[in-house]
Amino acid sequence: MKKFLALLIVGLIFSFGQSSVSAQGKILVAYFSRIGEEYGVGNITKGNTAIVAEIIAQKTGADLFEIKTVKSYPNNYDECTKVASREKAQNARPELATRVNNFDSYDTIFIGSPIWYGDAPMAIYTFLESYNFSGKKIIPFVTHGGSGLSGVDQRFTLACPDAEILQGLAVRGSVAQNNSVEVEAKVDEWLAKIKIDL
Predict the structure, then answer these.
(1) Model confidence over 32-77: pLDDT tens digits?
(2) DSSP H or E stretch at residue 186
(3) What is the CATH code for 22-193?
(4) How high is the pLDDT of residue 18?
(5) Segment 87-132, tens digit of pLDDT
(6) pTM for this entry
(7) What is the mean pLDDT of the chain?
(8) How far is residue 24's CA from residue 106's CA, in Å, rounded to a whole number?
């Protein structure tokens, strides 16, 4: 009897420990990020958005997926801004080099990107249009140089009208690069606010 009770208690503890994934279903953190010369930060070897994405994935137990384009963006900041500006003006849909396996198995999808010219890079919209988000939760997060979310959450609502869009998170790129403690605190507060169990 004692052995049975001990096993029951262990089982209950284990099930409560798994609640962060089961309460939200299967979670994916998909992100687009860039390395190279970055405004206000310098030359970076890990992208601002990648840093935040890894923290979110670690805290939620989510799978991590990097959105990559077939044609890479220039490492030089000024050259990259020219490409980004042209793509936005043309409402381009850059071809993606990566694809999510078993996308339908995910219930909650965090989508992260930098802010370029007041919007997510056009590759993010290629990603949104490549899958069926009906009935899923989309949670945006961005890194920026001072523009915040820039209305990305509203644009995601227009792009995926049959999905539920939760409140997004905006993190300054300089903070992502230089203060992981602050980023973790922001992520913890945000996840609690949108009721994503840790």
Answers:
(1) 999 999 877 789 999 999 999 999 999 999 999 999 999 999 999 9
(2) helix 180-193
(3) 3.40.50.360
(4) 35
(5) 999 999 999 999 999 999 999 999 999 999 999 999 999 999 999 9
(6) 0.86
(7) 89
(8) 9
Start-to-end Cα distance in the chain? 33
Tokens of 96: 């993606």
Q: Where are the domains of the chain?
A: 22-193
Residue reference for tokens 């801004």: 81
Strand partners for 114: 143
Q: Are 28 and 19 spatial neighbours (Cβ–Cβ below 8 Å)?
A: no
- Nearest partner of 40 among 147, 196, 185, judged by Cα: 147
- Please name the amino acid found at residue 131: Y
Confidence band of 16 (pLDDT split at 50, 70, 90): very low
**Distance between CA atoms of residues 111 and 156, nearest Å:** 10
In contact, 88 and 122? CB cutoff 8 Å? yes
The CA-based angle 55-56-62, given to 5 degrees, is: 115
Structure tokens at 23: 């309460």
Residue with tokens 């799978």: 63
Rounded to whole angstroms, what are the CA distances from 182 to 4, 142, 162? Answer: 44, 15, 34
